[in-house]
Amino acid sequence: MNDDQLHAMRHSLAHITAAAVQRLWPTAKFGVGPVVENGFYYDIDLGEINISEANFPKIEKEMRGIINYGDDFERFEMPIDQAIDWAKQNSQPYKEELLNDLKRSGTTVAKDLDVNELGLAATGDSAVENVSFYKNGNFVDLCRGPHVANTKDVGAFKLIRVAGAYWRGKETNPQMQRLYGVAFATQEELDAYLERLEQAKARDHRRLGKELDLYTMSPLVGAGLPLFTPRGTVLRDIFAQYSNQLRQSRGFTKVWTPHITKTDLYETSGHWAKFGDELFLVTSQETDDKMALKPMNCPHHTQIYASRPRSYRDMPVRFLETTTDYRDEKTGELGGLNRVRSLTQDDSHVFCRTDQIESEINNLLASARELYGAIDMPLRVRLSYRDDSDGYLGEMALWQSAQDQLKAAVIANELEYFEQDGEAAFYGPKIDFMATDAIGREHQVATVQLDFVQPGRFGLTYTDSEGNSQTPVMIHCALLGSIERFLSVLIEHTAGWFPFWSAPEQIRILTINDTLCDYVDEIKAILDGIVLMKPVKYNELRYTVDERNESLGKKIREATSWKIPVQLIVGQKDKDAHEVSVRTQKGEEKVSLDNLGDYLTSL
Q1: Among 563, 595, 576, which residue's Cα sits nearest to residue 211?
Q2: CA diameter of the chain
Q3: Taking CA atoms, which of 32, 69, 247, 591 is between 20 and 30 Å from 261?
Q4: Burial letters for 233-244: b for 16+ Cβ neighbours within 10 Å, e otherwise?
Q5: Is 345 a catalytic residue?
Q6: Which CA distances in Å does 167 have to 93, 98, 174, 405, 494?
Q7: Helices 80-89/93-105 angle, 10° precision
Q8: Active-site residue 347, yes or no?
Q9: CB neighbours of 37 closer than 8 A, spacing ≥ 6?
Q10: Catalytic residue among 349, 386, 563, 583
């Protein structure tokens, strides 16, 4: 089944879902029902009635009845005024609102609503004259299509969740119930997907973050502002250190910038016009300056570059800063560590000559590949280009040059890639790294961005070999991106079994009885003398000792529940043989104390 057929199948199931809900609750009022990744949803207003997962079997039974009956999907059109009357007569105020907007604003509002996603249809040019409907059985819906020919052609499906959603995404509008389903061509494909969903639930970073004591949220601190515990902070610091190490080995130097700034900085950079609504504003009691918490770091780094004259001999100038930024994200979009209001970025900015672009991008690509190789996440890249809209700064010729150079660098590095319009930053195209986790999900992680715009807006210059003033090129890069979001991906990728070198607690020594203190001290002395060199240098071992008067079985179960990668079990026989029993996910083996250091540094 090709993508178009799968889309039609899923869109048809959205209609069948609505038809089933209408049969069960005839007063249901419907919003929109688009296709989404792996399935569909429908926004529904049932007044005081709340749908829960307990209702899913009843709705699915009704859906199967509709499917098995085998009605054709029939398309027909109505004049816009007749369609509005239909919506009124059938008590469908949300459809009526959409139709009135189409009549009033024509194809302008149709474009704003994204007719492909919302399932609307509009014929005519600037003024909408007719709209299309689809009918299956007794159910009629305003819809653009496409659909399968008959309800029997919809494949395998399952309802998976229901969530609240504001009508048309506005918090001032009524809240509806968004009923989600997944659908595939065959039952086998559906079963495989549902199995992946179960795995995803078991790996959910919000659950594991609590179980492994990595981070917490507090209503007194605020939504989207995570607090990291000692164990979680170790994880943050290790990966920040690794990112810094990779960049410093390639010529980057650390800088530091304040967390607040005058809004003038973002007005000059262009961020204010683009993202002004996402800034936390700060009021001074001493001056009339308009201030904001910094949402990104690139404008600040331009000012460090601009602080003194630069020559072509100084280029490239490479800055790195791992720092927390702040964005006033919508409350409804916050979730765990995926979307937060305080995000820590391992930010990098290169100011270089045009003839240095290729080598600088190659450096950054190599760093990203090394980092994600260390956590066993395969990478491919998305070349994120601009589209034809007006939301971008800079001349088209500069954009095309930048896009061509990024593509050439990716090809030269033999990276798997795909191209996508409309995903660029407002100031330049990007290489977005897409990492695949242990259960096959793809996440955007690192990014490399080419920027011909901001250096010009800030008047940045350097003197070339002939004494002329030139504008540098700016390259943005983050290897981890948001450390918070990266950790959400890492936790779910590893299911909390972090690589040995990065685990908050790497080793736990488990004693069989309390008569082995001298031997435990001998083991601790060996551990204290071990320094790991790869992938993070100077990473001293983090270990604890469980000498409680508890059974060994209980100690092992607790250490395993904390997902500690190495357990050293110590008994009298181990002491007599001058060895330890090493327990890992791969099993258990005896290791001589003389070889323990080599064993651990090889993990």
Answers
A1: 563
A2: 92
A3: 247
A4: ebbbbbbbbbbb
A5: yes
A6: 11, 11, 6, 42, 37
A7: 160
A8: yes
A9: none
A10: 349
Query: Which of the residues 15, 382, 430, 485 is marked catalytic?
Result: 430
Considering only 35-49, 410-424, 489-503, which range has the smallest mean pLDDT?
410-424
* Cα→Cα distances 143→103, 131, 147, Å: 16, 8, 10
| Catalytic (active site) residue 349 | yes
Strands in 281-283's sheet, in edge-to-edge order, are 260-262, 290-293, 281-283
The residue annotated as part of the active site, out of 143, 298, 352, 477, is 298
Q: What is the pLDDT of residue 169?
A: 84
Task: Give the pLDDT confidence of 214-231 residue by residue, as tens digits.
Answer: 999 999 999 999 999 999
Tell me if residue 300 is catalytic.
no
In the chain, what are the domains?
A: 3-202 (3.30.980.10), 235-494 (3.30.930.10), 500-601 (3.40.50.800)
Pairing of strands 473-482, 342-352: antiparallel
List all residues 6 or more positions away from 316 whose beta carbon is below 8 Å from its beta carbon.
251, 350, 351, 352, 353, 356, 360
**C-alpha to C-alpha distances, 99 to 96, 126, 129, nearest whole angstrom:** 5, 14, 11
268-304 confidence digits (pLDDT tens): 988 888 778 889 999 888 998 999 999 999 999 999 9
Choice among 141, 346, 347, 432 that is catalytic: 347
Contact 593, 526 (CB under 8 A): yes
Tokens for 552, please give them: 């060994």
Annotation marks residue 271 as catalytic: no
- Of the chain, the percentage scoring pLDDT greater than 90 comes to 75
Nearest-angstrom CA–CA distance, 241 and 247:
10
pLDDT at site 538: 67
Which is catalytic among the residues 10, 29, 327, 493? 327
Given a cut of 60, whether residue 120 has pLDDT beyond it is no
Total Cβ atoms within 10 A of residue 268: 17
Q: What is the pTM of this model?
A: 0.82
In tens, the pLDDT along 41-66 reads 999 999 999 999 999 999 999 999 99
Among the ranges given (13-17, 127-131, 150-154, 243-247), the one the predictor scored with the smallest mean pLDDT:
127-131
| 327 among known catalytic residues | yes
Which residue shows structure tokens 């302008």?
A: 108
User: What digits encode the pLDDT tens for the residues 509-565?
Assistant: 999 988 889 999 999 999 999 988 889 876 789 999 999 999 999 999 999 999 999
The DSSP code sequence of 54-109 is GGHHHHHHHHHHHHHHTPBPEEEEEEHHHHHHHHHHTT-HHHHHHHHHHHHHTHHH
| 3-class SS of residue 177 | strand
Q: Note if 521 is an active site residue.
A: no
Of the candidates 22, 345, 449, 470, the residue annotated as catalytic is 345
The rounded radius of gyration (Å) of the Cα atoms in the chain is 29
Q: Rounded to the nearest 10 degrees, what angle do helices 230-248 and 357-374 cross at?
A: 150
